[in-house]
Design brief:
Number of domains: 2
Protein name: (2Fe-2S)-binding protein
Strand order of the largest sheet: 2-1-5-3-4
Radius of gyration: 17 Å
CATH architecture of the largest domain: Orthogonal Bundle
CATH class of the largest domain: Mainly Alpha
Strand content: 15-25%
Organism: Mycolicibacterium agri (Mycobacterium agri)
CATH topology of the largest domain: DNA polymerase, domain 1
GO molecular function, one term: 2 iron, 2 sulfur cluster binding
Number of helices: 5
Pathway: Alkaloid degradation; nicotine degradation
Largest sheet: 5 strands, mixed
CATH superfamily of the largest domain: [2Fe-2S]-binding domain
Order of helices and strands: EEHEEEHHHH
Keywords: 2Fe-2S, Iron, Iron-sulfur, Metal-binding, Oxidoreductase
């Protein structure tokens, strides 16, 4: 008999299907890290303010610390670890390495997922707060990158290098 406080859900995480019974109060971040051993998303603030836990949830970037796991039964989750591997890095990850877009590296998985998601948003023509022409496809300016990445904090202040990495990876950014 299913307890009122637990629910069985199925998720696909980085290409692997998982069926787990979870407490209805468990966040997606805690499920990923503590139950499934997926440690790419980091627990930074646990309030959705730093972006260290950013993943791609059904193709859109999301802060996993604010998402209840039970609300995403059947979802596809891609973490930074699922965007590539040691033999074939994702173009965003390659650009981060080339441009030294990290220092301590704690925020890097969230930054990479957010960069992939924001480039997909840009490609789809979704405007941001700084987009001048709301009817056209937004240009990838420094202001657009900074605005779209503003939910991802880097305590080491590697922002100029992150912006350069995203510019460099732009033609390839939406490809997975």
């Amino acid at each position: 008999m299913e307890s009122a406080h637990f629910t069985e859900i199925t998720l696909e995480v980085d290409g692997t299907a998982h069926t787990v019974r979870v407490d209805n109060r468990v966040t997606l971040l805690d499920l990923l890290r503590e139950r499934l051993g997926v440690t790419a998303p980091k627990k930074g603030c646990d309030h959705g303010q730093c972006g260290s836990c950013t993943v791609l949830l059904d193709g859109r970037r999301a802060t996993s610390c604010l998402a209840l796991a039970v609300a995403h039964d059947g979802a596809e989750i891609v973490t930074a670890a699922g965007l590539g591997n040691a033999d074939a890095l994702h173009p965003i990850a390659e650009a981060f390495l080339e441009h030294d877009g990290f220092q301590c590296g704690y925020c890097t998985p969230g930054q990479i997922c957010s960069a992939v998601g924001m480039l997909d948003e840009l490609k789809a023509g979704q405007p941001s707060f700084v987009t001048a022409d709301l009817d056209g496809v937004p240009e990838l300016s420094d202001a657009e990158i900074r605005e779209r990445m503003s939910g991802n904090l880097c305590r080491c202040a590697a922002y100029p290098n992150i912006v350069a990495a995203i510019h460099d990876a732009h033609p390839h950014g939406a490809a997975r």
